[in-house]
From TrEMBL:
Name this protein carries in UniProt: Restriction endonuclease
Organism domain of life: Bacteria
Organism: Undibacterium arcticum
Entry's EC annotation: 3.1.21.-
InterPro entries: Restrct_endonuc-II-like (IPR011335), Restrct_endonuc_IV_Mrr (IPR007560)
Matching SUPFAM superfamilies: Restriction endonuclease-like
Amino acid sequence: MADSPKKWQTYEEVAAEILGRLRGALGLSAVEAKQSIPGLSGAEWELDAKGIQSGSEAFVIVECRRYTTSRIKQEAVGALAFRIQDTGAAGGFMVSPLGLQEGAQKVAASANIHSVILNAEATPQEFVLSFLGNLFVSLTGVDMRGEVGKMTPVVENNVAGKGRD
């Protein structure tokens, strides 16, 4: 019997898939899956995902942390900041359910790292994601995108009524 993936592994895979679907809203032309890339230091870095910026060959590092009891600490964001510097990335996304602690927010702001809040139990079909004042919600049959001051529902393949008498 094969081992089922750990919750953090599933979270990384789901986050990469969702970011890929939302790539245009995130300023990306593509999101690539988990991979290793070399750093200028000679170290090899494993990326949870890699986002390619729209209109260029620049890339951003996607780091996922499925921490459900505390926000991301500044040390974790500092490690991502060094990985960005060592790989020549243009910046990064820190994906987590609870966001960043105050010190981590300061480090992120100085290193072009953006916090992406994605619920811990997200699936490709059902998720809540917040990024730079935008809220993206997907429920089975309904996708919503909210910006400050407006909410736009998009209904696709709504199956809520099927199978009912």
